[in-house]
Amino acid sequence: MDLRIEEREKEGIRILDLQGNLLIGDSESLLRNTLFGGAEQGRVNAILNFAGVREIDDDGLGTLLVCHARFRRAGGGLKLLTLSRVHMELFIFMKLEGVFEVYQNEEDAIDSFFPDRAVHSFDILKFVEEHSKRPSSTTEKKP
Questions:
Q1: pTM of the model
Q2: Phi/psi of residue 138, nearest 5 degrees
Q3: 8 strand-pairing partners
Q4: In the chain, fewer beta carbons within 10 Å around the N or the C end?
């Protein structure tokens, strides 16, 4: 399935709700072009909502890094929202957990753009550790 992007705005922050896969080809190019198009208009604060993303490959990660760097150079920020456990493990495996700010709550992600607001920090490593300790719901029963 190709990537679909629905864009909305809240308190002056662009929020891109992603649906599908972020993979080499059309999907990563669509995301890059969407983000860069807004950046050219001076809209350099954005949140990417990954709630509907199933798969991310290395080209998708590369796109995120390029966009993050461009937004930072322009004085803005690119934050990630609702990464799944699998995606978080990928970020840790690729040693990217310290590069991106990750949030599980949209209000916290928005508040992170405003220095005078309290933000509940999210620890990606703690999240993965807690979820790896939980018993799997797909354990098979042996006869």
A1: 0.82
A2: -110, 20
A3: 15
A4: C
